[in-house]
Amino acid sequence: MPFLLRAAIVGGGAYAVGKRVQGGRDQNAAQDQQINDLQQQQAQAAPAPAAAAPVSAEDGMAKLTQLKALLDQGVLTQAEFDMQKSKILATM
Description:
It is a single chain. By secondary structure, the chain is mainly alpha-helical. It has 2 domains: 1-46; 57-91. It is built from 3 helices and no strands. Helix 2 (57-73) packs antiparallel against helix 3 (78-91). The longest helix has 44 residues, at 2-45.
């Protein structure tokens, strides 16, 4: 009889652990599905980026001068400066 009791306790414990693990898997699957749904909603709702309006040469030079000042002050990194500079030059 003690053997059957021990087997029942071990089996019951294993069952409980298995249910807990499965519950965690179910919860992870539900969270993954929610994330996928939100990503799809965002992809559908995201507006297309607007084309930059042309900038006059004077405005472009003023913006480049401001960018250079920010670079010299250490506000912008060289990479940030280069990226913004390319955007400005592309719209001129």
